[in-house]
Amino acid sequence: MTVLRTERLLLEPMTLGMVEAVMSGDRAEAERIAEACLPPAWPNRALIERAFTASVDEIRADPATRLWGDRLIIAGHERGERRVVGSVVFHGRPGADGIAEIAYGVEETSQRQGIATEATRACVEWALAHADVVAVRATTTSWHHASLRVITKLGMTHVDSRDHELLGELLVYELRR
Questions:
Q1: Which of 46, 59, 145, 166 is most exposed, with the fewest beta carbons within 10 Å of its own?
Q2: Which residue has the higher pLDDT, 79 or 97?
Q3: Total domain count for the chain?
C-alpha cells in the first residue's frame, strides 16, 4: 500500500507490527515502527477500542483484509519533526456490497486545524479509486459536532440511522463514486 500525501500530511499504511505494538502498549516499539513521535496519551485502552474493530488475532490472521486502507496521520515531516497526530481506519476491506466504512481520529492538541478533514478526504478518494468500492460510509452520533463537520466538508450525505446500545442513535453518512 502506498503512502498518501496531502498538502501538510503523510498518510502512512498501518502495519501489523504497529498494531501489535499499540495493542500491547509498547510505545517505544510503536514509535520505532512509525519513525515518528506518538502523542503523549498514546497508546491507551480507549484508543485501541475505537481504532481497532477486530482483535489482534483476527488482524494477524488476515492483515491485508483487516488493515485495508488503514493509515497513520503523520505531521511535521517537512520540518523533520515527524509526529503521529491521528489515524484513518477502515473497518476492513469492503465486502460484496462495495461499501467501505471509514473512521478517523486526531489527538487533542492537533484538533481544530483541519487535519481530520484533510487526511480523511485523501483516504476517501483513495478508496473510491478502487473499482470494487462504490461508496464510503462514516457513522457518528448527532452530538459529535467535530465528526459531523468533517463529514459535511467531505460532501457525505445522511443515508440511514441505527441504534447503538451505549451511544444511542448513530447517523450513517455516505459518499458514492
A1: 166
A2: 97
A3: 1
27-to-51, 86, 97, 128, 174 alpha-carbon distances in Å: 16, 15, 37, 33, 34
CA 80 to the chain's CA centroid: 23
- pTM to 2 decimal places: 0.91
* 55 sits in which H/E element: none
Q: Omega of the bond prior to 43 within 30 degrees of 0, cis?
A: yes
What are 16-73's pLDDT values in tens digits? Answer: 999 999 888 899 999 999 999 998 887 777 766 666 777 888 889 999 999 999 999 9
Residue 33 φ/ψ, nearest 5 degrees:
-65, -45
- Which ranges in the chain belong to alpha helices (H)? 16-23, 27-34, 45-51, 56-61, 63-66, 115-128, 145-153
Cβ neighbour number for residue 33 with a 10 Å cutoff: 20
